[in-house]
Structures are given as C-alpha cells and as structure tokens.
Amino acid sequence: MDVVKASEPQPSAEAQLRAAAPHTLVATARRLLAERVDAQEVTLLLADYGLDVLQPVTHLPHTGPPVSAQEGPAGSAFLTQKPVLEVLHDPVGNLAHLPITVRGDRLGVLSVQLPAGAVDPHTVLQLGDFATALGHEVTTAGRDTDLYLQARRTRRLTLAAEMQWQLLPGRGCAREEYVIGAHLEPAYSIGGDTFDWSTGADHLFLTITDGMGQGIDASLLASLTTGALRNARRAGIGLADQACLADQAVYAQYGGKAYTSTLLLRFELATGLVQAVDAGSPQLFRQRGGRTERVELEAQLPLGMFEETLYAEQTFRVEPGDRLIAVSSGVHGTRSATGDLFGERVLRQVLGATRSTAPHETARAVVAGLIEHFGSKELLSDAAVVCLDWNGRQG
C-alpha cells in the first residue's frame, strides 16, 4: 500500500524574511514578491540621516542614486505614510511605493514594480503588510550588518556623529496614547545633542539632552549622561533621583568642568499627568487648541555642574489633542549672520504653521526654519527637536 505524504505548508513571507541572512533581505524580498504578486522589480529605499533623500539599498557600493524624500511618488509615500501608485508607460505597468515604518519610526519606502492590471486594493494591502515585515527585519539586521546603515549615508559621518546616532532609540515612536517624531542637525556632524525615550505599560519617559562643547568631547559627555540616565531609569527610581544619579556620574568624571543640560519628562499614560525635571537649557512648548505657549518650568542646575546637586520634580498635565515640542539651546539660542536670535517668536511662527502636520514633519520643519534663519546647513551648534502628539488612553 502506497503512503501518500501530505505536502508541507509553504513558510510565510515573514518567516522567510526572518530566516534570510542579514545582508540578503532585499534579494529575498525580490524573490518572494516575484513569486506572490509577479513583481518585476523591488527596491528598498532608506531615508538618509538628514531626511532629505531616500537611498536605494544595493550590494556595492551599498547604495544607488537617491530620490527626494520630500517630492515625487516615493517622497510622497514617505511624507504621507500612505501607499502611492505610479503609472508606468515604458514598460506598461504600475510602481507601488509603500512606506516602511516600525513602531512609529519611519525608515523609508519599498518600491514594487508590477505588470499592468496586477494592482488592486487587496494586493496593495498585502504589499503594505510585507513592507512592514521587511522594516522589522531591517531593524533587527542592523545589529549584524553595516549594509543598511551605510545605505543611509550621503557622505561620511564624523566620528562624533557616528557615536551620537548609535545612542538614539530611533527618530520616532508611536502607540495608542502618543506619537513622537524627532530630528537632529547637522545630521552628519552632530556632537552633544541627543534625545531618548522608553515606554512601558503605564508610563513614558522622555529626555532631551544638550551636551556642552563640540565634537568628540561633546559626544562622550552626551554618551555618559545618556548611559547614566538609562541606568537610573532601569533601576526603577523616581525622576528626580534619576537626575541626581546622572548628575553625580557626570561630576565624578569631569569635576564640574563639563556638564549637560537635560529636560526629563515622565508621562502617566492613563491620566496625562507629567512629572518634569528641568536641568538646564532645553525649552518645552505646548500647543493646545489654537494657542502655542511655553511650559514654564523651574530652571535647575545642569547635570554635573556641581557635586551632589538635589533636583525637584514639577508636574503639569497634557490633554488629548495637545502637542508638546522640546528644543535644545541649538534651536532657541541660534543667531543669524546679522545677529538676530531665532528665539521664541520665530519658533512660535514655525510651530503655528505646522500644527496640522505629523510630529516627524513638524520636528523637521523647525530645523529647516532654523537653517533658513542661520543661512546655512552647517550650523554652529547642534539642534535637537522632539515633537509629541498626545492622544490619551481611550476608555
């Protein structure tokens, strides 16, 4: 009697992406989409550090000619975070551009060339899910290969910038209660400015740090401060004590000769209550309704300026629909070539004009306004912007 073996089920696309070697994700994506939707070409485009262009990932020299991250079909998909279909005439068909976003962090766009008549809503939905799965694998693969980091670069980073980018949790984060978008400039030579966040079941911690100095020295100082804050946070202690322990770590290393200005925030996700420690120069603004106002906090000493400084927490509350914008001194303290301060007035104008845009674009627009005011992308001081939209917890 013959025994008929049941055919084994085909592994899912997600499973095959997970099984692929880190540097072969694009080749695996091409093969899978050719099999499943008759894709004729597949291109992975990653946003560069300055969010100016989308760079194709190839084998050598790791990227091809870039396309705009602000204009054109691919740029539109990246900006709007919605699929964009481009009609092709030679060859006849369609080019589907799918945004790639991982937990609110916008990585880039997946462009898939399909034959004429092969595009329908179900296929676009499938491609969107595939793009998200690919984004997760690209993020994970970054631990084991430099390919995707190299593909993001339009030029070489300074060593200080390399160190700073490795500190960051990402450039965005999203969940039910909030959406965060952040931006840093000058992207390829940043030194001391950085930001960090961590979310849990009931709380969100958010910090923005303005390190003293420039270059490697500033980057080392920011790294020590970020590490000390994370260590204290992960020990489960209160916000003021986190600031105290980080203050001690920085003072122990530098003896007051170098210090960091840091804004620490802790959000209660269920209530919108915010605890804050203002240790220095970052400024915080809130947009509620049609108004933009400075959140006035008690200015306390920067971390590491003096030995064993004690810090006190303050509280305020955010409501659904509120937007918070935190900026480093490289934003509010920058002057133009004629000596005009960028200042609160100009910042309010930019924030008012971008109220309806996503947090990522607002953060980028603030830096773009700063660059226009300064007259050059080569800013003299680092500029960090973090924008948070508060939705609150439903029910």
UniProtKB/TrEMBL annotation:
What's the name of the protein? Answer: Magnesium or manganese-dependent protein phosphatase
> Which terms does the record give in the GO molecular function aspect?
phosphatase activity
Hydrolase: present as a keyword of the record?
yes
Residue ranges annotated as transmembrane are none
| Listed InterPro entries | Bact_Sigma-Reg, PPM-type-like_dom_sf, PPM-type_phosphatase-like_dom
Pfam families in the record: SpoIIE
Keywords per UniProt: Hydrolase
Instruction: Please tell me whether the keyword Ligase is annotated for this protein.
Output: no
Q: What is the lineage of its organism?
A: Bacteria, Bacillati, Actinomycetota, Actinomycetes, Kitasatosporales
| Native source species | Streptomyces sviceus (strain ATCC 29083 / DSM 924 / JCM 4929 / NBRC 13980 / NCIMB 11184 / NRRL 5439 / UC 5370)
Alphabetized Gene3D superfamilies for the sequence: PPM-type phosphatase domain
Ranges of residues in domain PPM-type phosphatase = 175-390
Q: Which domain of life is it from?
A: Bacteria
